[in-house]
Write a structure and sequence with these properties.
Blueprint (H helix, E strand, L loop, with lengths): L3 E2 L3 E2 L4 E4 L2 E7 L3 E7 L14 E10 L2 E7 L22 E4 L3 E6 L2 E6 L6 E5 L2 E6 L5 E4 L5 E8 L6 E5 L10 E5 L14 E7 L3 E5 L5 E5 L6 E7 L2 E8 L3 H12 L12 E4 L8 H13 L6 E4 L22 H10 L3 E6 L2 E2 L4 H9 L21 E2 L5 H17 L3 E4 L17 H24 L21 E2 L7 H15 L6 E2 L1 E2 L8 H11 L5 E3 L13 H16 L1 H14 L4 E2 L1 H4 L13 E3 L3 E3 L8 E6 L3 E4 L5 E3 L2 E6 L7 E4 L2 E5 L15 E5 L6 E7 L5 E10 L2 E8 L4 E6 L4 E5 L2 E2 L4 E4 L5 E8 L1
Parallel strand pairs: 22-23, 22-31, 23-24, 24-27, 28-29, 30-31, 41-45
Antiparallel strand pairs: 1-2, 3-13, 4-5, 5-6, 6-7, 7-21, 8-9, 9-10, 10-11, 11-12, 13-14, 14-20, 15-17, 16-19, 17-18, 18-21, 19-20, 25-26, 32-33, 33-34, 34-39, 35-38, 36-37, 36-39, 40-41, 42-43, 43-44, 44-49, 45-48, 46-49, 47-48
């Protein structure tokens, strides 16, 4: 939201009271409280008829400092509020001189100027990373009596801003106006399903605005050297999070707002859906499932979209008896084929649903101010919305979900959650402005916790569209309604990379696009991208998404990349464990892995899948692709070609290939199974040791189905000698050297051929040495 008219003037009707002079800084039990004047204090008379801003500083975690700017402190806090980690503050140090008061938390120093020129500066060691200067903190009023709180933080020369949720606009947010307000707007506009009030910059720090309501950002837009954010009301709280790396910022941010849960391994397989408005029954479903099996296409999850329930009755959680007369038997038959089952739901209750009368009678639906149930015809005729601020409503909704899980359902697609009205009243008195974005958090939490309760820890996964800060705790999220073209494929990737830089570990998208039907060439290129994403789903709107509906080659491409993904599961499940433990996205923007490479700061058409694999999807019909390899030795995973990085490359690929490179000094684990994602990853695992430099060590971890490390292998090179140690399972594995020449000899294990070492099952601690020719 803009308040000024250029650099010098203020917009008509706007009054800005900005912090200009420090009055006092006091130590408190939580940290520090500063009081700043919005007009210069020239004498006692200047303290009359004046506006003060109270600025409170506290630190819940090392390297994380909260700053709360308050005008009037008598405002009732109606909630909701983000659930944040509450630290003790024992790690905080306070230092004071005549000129400054300093709060130190981990590697972050906050310097408050005591002089006549108000400023707060944030340092990493001796490096100033950002700051709030003269008049940046401000209390603002407009001609209608509305009040706002604003902050402006400095953006340095060459500094880029990322994140703010799943945004489909330019990957670098500099120059953008971003209003965080969840909307069902597709993937081709400035609107977003997942609005996260957190950004991270190329300088290695992040800013989290602790407000679930609308947060309005001007990122180098209203003032080109400022990141401005504002909220309506009388107070504004934000956190500065110091890295020093982007990965460390995200670790600390997710320590504050919640780590992603670890999805079960089966969710990483191929999902196939009925699509949205297509006609289907059990025979149709069986034709899809059998068609996949007949064509040797591994399939792991079958999803029933909206019309598993009868039209006009969404959501009633009842199978439409006209097309699914025996749902229990049908689900059993599908599960006997090794499939997991997902069904579509939303939190909207159509008037024709039997649940509507239950919800109305018991007060489970959101109401208007006069006590009527809030209703709309947008989506389902006369629908109401479940009021998740009512514990009884949560239990009511959860009860229907439990019944479906007992029937055989393994996951729920938690669609919608964005079109939440603000002219309503909640059961617990929550502020409707804050609930608009926060509603999805309560919705997904109820569903996720039912799955975790019924199926067990690390067995729960939703397929969610909307989110706010903290939503990463309830994976998986997908990108929403995209068109079936290359442009939407690219905008989807931009959205996913932005979401990954907002603390979300897992992300998916509709392979081939949702709206319309893609030409076969788009579908086949999207297959490679989709099956090299953390989660992979074939889904559409008005047409079926079975590969043979496109052409015969699409069948072969589906088979190739599905089997490739299954074989990569030992590696993919380890990076899933990293997402769960550290908050790092499985699909990582290049800047996250290569923060020192300036070329990587703006790349948004390629990504790192974990820390070892580089993926560059192809967005052209002719198969041409231009991509960048950072410095170092890279080995193409599919054809073994090795190239030197540090430059751009332009190539042409058929549908069975794309730029897919293994980073040098990598130990990459691949599995012995290529038909399913959930298997014993350590049994017969194969390690590839890629371009290990002299004097360098690298490790790989193989996890079990609970995400716990089962086998850890380390390789260290000194000259022509590579020493390998393995701790863990005691199961057989092989290790092949890649781009290292041939093996001359092996001491302590069996040499299988010129490039491969075989370790037999037995000892849980193994050590051997490879001598290279």
């Amino acid at each position: 939201m803009k308040f000024t008219d250029g650099l010098w003037l203020v917009r008509d009707g706007i009054n800005i009271n900005g912090a200009v002079q420090n009055y006092v800084v006091e130590k408190t039990a939580e940290g520090l409280t500063a009081v700043t004047q919005t007009t210069p204090i020239t004498g006692r008379a200047a303290t009359l008829n004046s506006t003060l801003l109270t600025v409170k500083f506290h630190s819940p975690l090392p390297g994380v400092v909260g700053i709360k700017i308050i005008h009037n402190d008598g405002v009732l806090d109606r909630g909701p509020a983000f659930e944040l980690t509450k630290g003790t503050g024992d790690h905080v140090q306070i230092e004071e001189t005549e000129a400054q008061t300093v709060l130190i938390s981990g590697g972050l120093r906050v310097v408050i100027n005591k002089g006549t020129h108000w400023s707060v500066d944030f340092y990493r060691g001796d490096e100033r990373i950002t700051g709030s200067g003269y008049k940046s903190m401000a209390y603002i009023t407009d001609q209608d009596g509305n009040t706002f709180m604003r902050e402006e933080l400095d953006i340095g020369v060459g500094e880029f801003v990322y994140g703010l949720g799943e945004r489909f606009t330019s990957f670098v947010k500099n120059g953008q106006v971003v209003d965080l307000w969840n909307k069902d707007g597709g993937t081709s506009s400035e609107q977003a399903y997942k609005n996260i009030p957190f950004y991270v910059t190329s300088k290695g720090y992040g800013v989290f605005v602790n407000h679930p309501e609308l947060v309005s950002y001007e990122i180098a837009s209203e003032k080109v050297k400022k990141a401005q954010f504002s909220v309506a009301g009388e107070s504004l709280e934000y956190f500065i999070i110091e890295g020093p790396s982007i990965k460390e910022v995200i670790t600390k941010y997710t320590s504050l707002t919640g780590k992603p849960a670890l999805p079960p391994a089966w969710t990483f397989g191929l999902w196939l859906t009925t699509s949205f408005t297509t006609d289907y029954d059990e025979a149709t479903v069986n034709s899809f499932v059998e068609g996949m099996a007949e064509r040797d296409l591994p399939l792991h999850v079958f999803h029933f979209d909206c019309f598993w329930m009868r039209e006009y009755q969404w959501t009633d959680f009842q199978w439409d008896p006209r097309v699914f007369p025996d749902p229990v038997g049908m689900l059993k038959r599908l599960k006997d084929k090794g499939l997991k089952i997902c069904v579509w739901i939303n939190s909207y209750i159509g008037q024709r649903s039997p649940l509507f009368e239950e919800g109305k009678k018991n007060g489970y639906l959101i109401k208007k101010a006069n006590g009527d149930v809030y209703q709309t015809d947008l989506w389902q005729a006369g629908m109401g919305l479940v009021d998740f601020t009512n514990p009884a409503a949560c239990e009511w909704y959860a009860g229907y979900l439990r019944g479906l899980v007992d029937m055989g359902v393994d996951s729920f697609k938690t669609d919608f959650g964005e079109r939440i009205p603000t002219d309503v009243v909640y059961f617990d008195g929550s502020d409707p402005q804050k609930m608009h974005n926060y509603y999805t958090q309560m919705y997904n939490k109820v569903v996720f916790e039912v799955l975790e309760e019924k199926l067990g820890k690390h067995e729960a996964a939703v397929f969610a569209r909307s989110a706010t800060a903290g939503g990463q705790q309830f994976p998986v999220h997908w990108g929403g309604d995209c068109y079936a073209d290359y442009e939407s494929m690219a905008e989807s990737l931009r959205g996913g990379l932005s979401l990954g830089l907002s603390g979300f570990g897992f992300w998916s998208h509709d392979i081939g696009g949702f709206e319309n039907t893609a030409p076969a060439h788009v579908f086949k290129r999207w297959l490679a991208f989709g099956l090299l994403s953390s989660h992979s789903r074939l889904h559409g709107s008005t047409s079926y998404r079975v590969p043979w509906a496109y052409d015969d080659e699409a069948v072969d491409v589906t088979r190739f990349f599905t089997k490739l993904k299954c074989s990569l599961m030992p590696y993919l499940y380890d990076i899933a464990g990293q997402a769960h433990e550290q908050g790092w996205a499985s699909m990582r923007a290049m800047v996250m892995e290569f923060p020192e490479d300036p070329t990587c700061e703006v790349l948004d058409r390629q990504y790192m899948l974990g820390d070892k694999l580089l993926v560059a999807p192809i967005f052209q019909e002719n198969g041409e692709v231009k991509y960048y390899l950072p410095a170092g030795r890279w080995t193409h995973l599919l054809n073994g070609e090795t190239v030197q990085g540090g430059s751009w490359r332009k190539e042409k690929h058929d549908f069975f290939s794309l730029p897919l490179f293994v980073r040098q000094n990598s130990l990459l684990a691949t599995g012995s199974v290529d038909t399913r994602p959930d298997y014993d990853f350590a049994d017969g695992v194969k390690f590839g040791l890629y371009a290990l430099e002299d004097g360098t060590a690298t490790t790989a971890t193989v996890r079990d189905m609970n995400g716990a490390p089962e086998l850890t292998v380390k390789a260290e090179r000194k000259g022509s000698k590579v020493t390998v140690t393995a701790e863990g399972s005691g199961k057989a594995f092989t290790l092949a050297v890649k781009d290292l020449g041939a093996i001359a000899s092996v001491d302590g294990a069996e040499q299988a051929d010129d490039t491969t070492v075989k370790v037999n099952a037995g000892a849980k601690s193994v050590s051997f040495t490879i001598t290279l020719k």
